Amino acid sequence: QVQLVESGGGLVQPGGSLRLSCAASGFTFSSASMNWYRQAPGEEREMVATISNAGGRTNYADYVKGRFTISRDNAKNTVYLQMNSLKPEDTAVYYCRLGFSDYWGQGTQVTVSS
Asked: Are 32 and 53 in contact (CB under 8 A)?
């Protein structure tokens, strides 16, 4: 069955960096686009970044452009989200999603605070 397991979240000071990972199994990873979403308390879940199956195409939400980078390693069945210049408003639970399917990871908490 499809499994998506995020890791790498934590507490970081404003201006700091984190790298999230999402380990995937149960499907042909190299054939699937992958997405990162986030959900802040009291807010709707929103898409952060997306990457095509081979990694050649990426897209970002305007509020993370230039700060976040999505990448993938198809040999390791893993998608990453490198987050730099973090701001308090980036605080949220971050989820990976298999394309636009109903398969989501359990989420990893990112807290940006001094």
From this structure: yes
